[in-house]
Amino acid sequence: MIVALAGGVGGAKLAHGLTRILDPSELVIAVNTGDDFLHLDYFICPDLDSVLYKLADINDTERGWGIRDETWNFMESLKKIGGEDWFQLGDKDLATHIERTRRLTEGQTLSEVTRALCQQHKIAHSIVPMTDHRVGTVVDTKDGDFFFQDYFVRLRCEPTFTGVHYKGMEEAVPAPQFKAALRDPSLTAIMFCPSNPYVSIDPILSVPGVFNALNNAGVPIIAVSPIIGGQAVKGPAAKMMAELGLPVSPRGIAQHYGNLIDGLVIDNEDVDLAEQIMATGIGVQVTNTLMKSAEDEALLAQETLNLAATLSRKGS
Ligand code: FO1
To answer: Cβ(177)–Cβ(128) under 8 Å?
Structure first.
């Protein structure tokens, strides 16, 4: 069994690749919920929805978030009456937020709601939130601290990044299915999808108990670099690394995860860095990591599984 930690678009793509190779009983996709927020009284879970829509094959590939062939009547009408319109909610997407909020208000956990949405979309693989508790990623910048969507959407990631902290994380525990998967005797590897290390993967690692559970699972941990040729495929990862003074390359990714990872999958474009990374005790696989098609996703997923099969957990 494989546990994959995923954030937004990059996470959804590799997760999709893994679903093409692994049976539903062989994969648990644990998704970042640090981006979640209450907006217009609806509970929005952008990363869960990115994975959900991708596996349901209804995702918008151009925009990178939301549902394809979307209409915007709600947003336009809201704008006309002076409502908040900085965060775009498409008509189809809105149905997810309304139904999720209704179920949560009724007392269901986020895991239960996510399972129900997966069933409705006929998704057989397990998509689980990192936690059922409400936590919020707060981005620390030179201009002050901002909740993630404020920094990402409203401020377009402009303020200089200095770090992150999380609201409500102290009380959080991993979602039951995530916790169980990390303890499952049939677990063979843990994957970090090519998601932003600071605002997608680190929030998952920061849920109390998760870091130790990963460290002690005794199986190889493999990351896929979200940086290719000095750039992030999508989002602010490269900008954040530069602002922290890290090399904007897979070397910076290796440095960030340090001893936590046993292997790193990097792009062909970064082949020259393989030796330096391997010298730090991390196994490297060089391949195409830019996922433009479902075939690319499945090939990268297979390469990642292959690397895991050649490695063992540090110290074990
Ligand atoms: N991203 C934007 O840049 N602008 C938006 O108005 C926006 C709306 C939105 C609505 C629902 C949703 O699930 C995602 C949405 N996103 C939007 C993307 C979201 O900010 C990002 O997917 C993540 O939080 C980063 O992983």
So the answer is: yes
**6 in a domain, yes or no?**
yes
CATH code, 182? 3.40.50.10680
CA of 87 to the centre of ligand 1 (A): 7
Residue 203, ligand 1, Cβ within 6 A: no
> Is residue 83 situated within a structural domain?
no
Q: What is the pLDDT of residues 92-146, one digit of tens each?
A: 999 999 999 999 999 999 999 999 999 999 999 999 999 999 999 999 999 999 9
Domain count of the fold of the chain: 1
Q: Enter the tokens of residue 107.
A: 């007392």
Range(s) of the domain holding residue 41:
2-60+106-139+168-310
For residue 75, being part of any structural domain is answered with no
Task: For residue 87, give the ligand 1 atom closest to its CA.
Answer: 6
* pLDDT score, position 314: 82
Does residue 52 sit within a domain? yes
Q: Encode pLDDT of 264-280 as tens digits.
A: 999 999 999 999 999 99
Task: Please give the model's pTM, rounded to 2 decimal places.
Answer: 0.97
Nearest CA residue ID for atom 2, ligand 1 = 153
Which residue has the CA at smallest separation from atom 9 of ligand 1?
88
149 lines ligand 1 (CB under 6 A): yes
Taking the CA of residue 196 as reference, the ligand 1 atom at the shortest distance is 26
Distance 264 CA to ligand 1 centre (A): 28
